[in-house]
Fold this sequence. Notes:
Layout: E1 7-9, H1 12-23, E2 30-34, E3 37-38, H2 40-47, E4 51-55, H3 66-72, E5 77-83, H4 92-101, E6 106-109, E7 117-118, E8 121-122, E9 129-133, E10 146-150, H5 156-165, H6 171-187, H7 193-205, H8 231-240, H9 244-261, E11 267-269, E12 276-277, E13 282-287, H10 290-299, E14 312-313, H11 317-322, H12 331-337, E15 340-344, H13 351-362
Parallel strand pairs: 2-4, 2-5, 3-14, 5-6, 6-9
Antiparallel strand pairs: 1-10, 7-8, 7-12, 9-10, 11-13, 13-15
Helix pairs in contact: 1-2, 1-5, 3-4
The site of pyridoxal-5'-phosphate (PLP) has 15 residues, from helix 1, strand 3 and helix 2.
Amino acid sequence: xxxxxxxxxxxxxxxxxxxxxxxxxxxxxxxxxxxxxxxxxxxxxxxxxxxxxxxxxxxxxxxxxxxxxxxxxxxxxxxxxxxxxxxxxxxxxxxxxxxxxxxxxxxxxxxxxxxxxxxxxxxxxxxxxxxxxxxxxxxxxxxxxxxxxxxxxxxxxxxxxxxxxxxxxxxxxxxxxxxxxxxxxxxxxxxxxxxxxxxxxxxxxxxxxxxxxxxxxxxxxxxxxxxxxxxxxxxxxxxxxxxxxxxxxxxxxxxxxxxxxxxxxxxxxxxxxxxxxxxxxxxxxxxxxxxxxxxxxxxxxxxxxxxxxxxxxxxxxxxxxxxxxxxxxxxxxxxxxxxxxxxxxxxxxxxxxxxxxxxxxxxxxx
Length: 366
Ligand SMILES: *Cc1c(COP(=O)(O)O)cnc(C)c1O
């Protein structure tokens, strides 16, 4: 059973920000994180005044390469963020060995997982702390929101002080989030995945909906980083946390089906380290021709997600420089973002839809 969170924030990135601040990360420091992530992670690092350094992922995997981590560490490094992408545990034995060698604190990015284990121990319990997100696409959805678990007691007082100084989101914000929550809840089903995705992008561009990402061109730090979770969403989260075990068993049933039934020359599976017991947030695959597959999936109303579509999703070209990613520096992450797709594993996927997905993917051979 997953315990309740000690601290709940406006978003997952705010939880990361607060943990970094408690560690003492600030201007002039660097924090190592992996390429093949989303903008929220470097945004949180940069909000402290520090600079993100990107380690590459292991070839054929979705998680950080221990050797690339080692090369990314310098005298200015103050912390390491280890992400368990799609719920697949990172190669923790090697990564933690490197962190220990340099006496650096590790924060686990658990936005995709509550229940995955590594060598029998739950992810989120290895670092000094771990953070979670409750927006759309994550295993538990409350609308928008984040949580922090702190394993190293030495940081608790500092985090509590920061927390007490944070504000609650404004009324307009809360209303937008609430409308979005119910709209998605009522409308979202596999057959409406593609049209809803398009509508959400349009609405968040126009400011009518709360999008997932802030503008990278803006100099000032987003107000998001001074906000806690509203009490209404906190109550919703509390009741939703009870359904984690249910999500876990549905995810396992669906991902096992995918493992056993997807057989296509155009598609391959990702590799995972030994000792993992994975509860997927989505089931990732490597596609030969991602663009064509996505187009066909849309035509057939099959839910296939495209993320991470770039090394630091959703940024491209010059925007990557703004967050200090140098093009070509993480070739494995660049390779994968051009090929990765993922399938839903939650309760929207029943027996009939699973079979539809299977026949769609396996017919790509022809
Ligand atoms: C969603 C997500 C985040 C950020 O969460 P927000 O609630 O959007 O701030 C960070 N890391 C990963 C891997 C995520 O999937």
